[in-house]
Amino acid sequence: MTLPGPDEWPVDADRSVAVTDLLRARAERTPDRTLLIDADEDERWTAAEFDRRVARAAAGIDALPGDGRVGTLLPTGVAFAEVAFAVPRLGRSLVPLNVQLDRETLADQVERAGIDTLLCDDDTEELARAVASDDVTVTDVGALDDSSGDSGAPSNPRDPDAERLVMFTSGTTGRPKGVRLTTANLVASASASAARLGVDPDDRWLICLPMYHMGGLAPLVRSTLYGTRAVLQREFDADETARVLREHDVTGVSLVPTTLTRLLDSGWTLTDALRFVLLGGGPAPEGLIERCERRDVPVFPTYGLTETASQVATATPEEAFAHEGTVGRPLRDTSVSIVADGVDQPPGETGEVVVDGPTVTPGYLDDAATAAAFGDRGLRTGDRGYRDEGGRLWVLGRADDVIVTGGENVRPANVAAALRAHPDVDDAAVVGVPDEEWGERVAALVVPDGDPTVDALRAHARDELPAFAVPKTVRLVETLPRTPSGTVDRERARELSK
Question: Is 115 helix (H, G, I), strand (E, B) or coil?
Fold first, then answer.
């Protein structure tokens, strides 16, 4: 089947749809088409059936005190999906909170986001009540179905440029920031993604990443806009996810490097149905893309941000295999500049990645953070990278990740790459930790693939790196600390490296 190209896609993702209730528009257009599948319970709903569930949930939320932002402490699943559409139906903003965070951080986010309603389930109710202040209404989502009738609350969507969603960044290098996103941002992202990946009417997008991160929530919104099916799995498990991919004829899945690696290690057998694996959440470890090529995995490495409602640039498998390490060309209507000292850099020159376009957030909850992040060319991402002669983007790491040790600047990504080149190393992460003598010292966490000694690893580093960049501290660990989105948790890595 020929997939729609950029000029043919899509009828639904024009700006006029953004003015409407996204799910209601889908239910009116294709009411009998299956929209959502619960892979854990083997249940499914048509667009009309799911719309009625959302209407009841919206009525339940509308009956609660408060008219401000609605927070959630919910895992991936149908209840989360209902709330994700019910809240904007009421003209309110959704704030998905990470159920894995500590109570202090969650309480801070509830307060900073101005949440006045916090939705939970049986497993998270105790946590919700612990992090909510006295003026926040805490409610189990199971109680929202108590409203009578199918009509529910009236649909009251906001202007497409009004805030619909607040998502907190992973905060791998500091305090998480609350990112404000609009319906227009989400629709523009869906349209641009479709132009790169294509859309087949029979697509089934498996969601096994946490829906409180953009990588888990964006496919739900996109599938609704496309009129295709979203398949929900509460959490990733290599063997179980392989089964779901097979039994549900999944055509696309969003993964991070860790989960894709675990799938490949599990002996996962691909099906003919699978046509894309969208790989984001951090750089692919050396050799992962090559493994995909050997196994005929249709991998699309992508670079994206919460601030851009997901993808910024995405490589096709052909690009990824021919130019391992690239994240491809920017998506449609997205501009990417490489800036150093206020000057746009030519191909091959490194600078900060700056992004502009209709997917970019209007700003953060904190006005000061917004002012600091935006310039004449758009959003300053804080990531370093370059564009090659073919327009492909290469992301090299965080601009603020430089380790200054004894007056010398060290790029952690370069040191990690040198360590990964050792035959007995599976993965590595490098951070700077405080040091009385050097200011900072270079420290490394290494996941062994064999039986290397610390002395051998440092000797290998000395052969590959300048003396000041050789890690003074090396710790062997079973796994690298990671955020739920798959990126290295640099604060935790610093703690483990001390």
Answer: strand
Residue with more model confidence, 246 or 405 = 246
Q: How confident is the model at residue 258 (pLDDT cuts 50, 70, 90)?
A: confident
Q: Cβ neighbours of residue 464 under 8 Å, at least 6 residues apart?
A: 418, 421
Query: What's the mean pLDDT when you consider all of the chain?
Result: 90
How many angstroms separate the CA atoms of 166 and 321, rounded? 36
Three-state DSSP class for residue 488: strand
pLDDT of residue 12: 44
Q: Which two tokens stand for residue 229?
A: 């099916």
Between CA 143 and CA 153, with CA 43 as vertex, the angle to 5 degrees is 40
pLDDT band at 101 (very low <50, low <70, confident <90, very high): confident
Note the residue count of the chain.
498
Which residues in 245-273 are b (16+ Cβ under 10 Å) and which e?
beebebbbbbbbbbbbbbbbeeebeeeeb
Q: Whose structure tokens read 């470890």?
A: 285
Q: Which of 204, 209, 234, 240 shows the shortest CA–CA distance to 222?
A: 204
Tell me phi and psi for residue 51, to 5 degrees: -60, -40
Distance, first Cα to last Cα, the chain: 55
CA angle 263, 230, 217 (to 5 degrees): 80
Helix (H, G, I), strand (E, B) or coil at 11: coil
pTM equals 0.83
Which of 456, 385, 444, 453 is CA-nearest to residue 410?
444
Kindly state the helix (H) or strand (E) to which residue 341 belongs, with its residue range.
Answer: none
Residue that has been written with the tokens 């007995």 in this structure:
424
Q: How many CA atoms lie within 13 A of 9 on its CB side?
A: 25
Eight-state DSSP code of residue 46: E
Question: Is it the case that residue 210 has pLDDT exceeding 60?
Answer: yes
The Cα 53–Cα 44 span in angstroms is 12
Q: Indicate the pairing of strand 34-38 with strand 229-232.
A: parallel
Q: Give the pair of three-digit tokens for residue 436.
A: 């009385």
Residue in this structure with the two tokens 């569930």, named with its chain if needed:
53
**Dist. CA 181–CA 484, nearest whole Å:** 20
Neighbours of 208 (CB within 10 A): 26
